[in-house]
Design a protein that fits this description.
Order of helices and strands: HEEEEE
Mean pLDDT: 92
Shape: globular
Number of domains: 1
CATH architecture: Beta Complex
Strand order of the largest sheet: 1-2-3
Helix content: 10-25%
Length: 107
């Protein structure tokens, strides 16, 4: 893990209409030679690890979460269709997103 915690600085990515967050993630890790592992199919991929940092490496509530325009959707990265100008972030949480400012319904 980089000292500053940033694996890839903000990067402009071109994508085609209809592509989803997962499509862009696959493109970016391939272009920048960043290790990534996932399970599941195109519609429901689950990101297990990026840059050799895996779910549960930071504790029992840790793993990767994505946000688009600072909002954490409640559905998978294989379902979120992108629009021009969208800003995607992949962040690692150690507390089911609470450490990223994410709250869940009912809390």
């Amino acid at each position: 893990m980089p000292v500053d915690g940033i694996i890839l600085a903000p990067t402009v990515v071109e994508f085609k209409e209809g592509e989803v967050v997962f499509d862009v993630l696959k493109q970016v890790v391939r272009q920048h030679k960043i290790h990534m592992e996932y399970e599941g199919s195109k519609g429901t991929p689950y990101i297990q690890g990026i840059n050799n940092l895996y779910e549960f490496d930071g504790g029992p509530l840790s793993g990767w979460m994505y946000c688009v325009n600072k909002v954490y959707p409640n559905y998978g990265c294989g379902e979120y269709k992108l629009k021009p100008g969208d800003i995607i972030e992949w962040n690692y949480t150690c507390d089911l997103g609470k450490d990223l400012g994410q709250t869940w319904l009912g809390e």
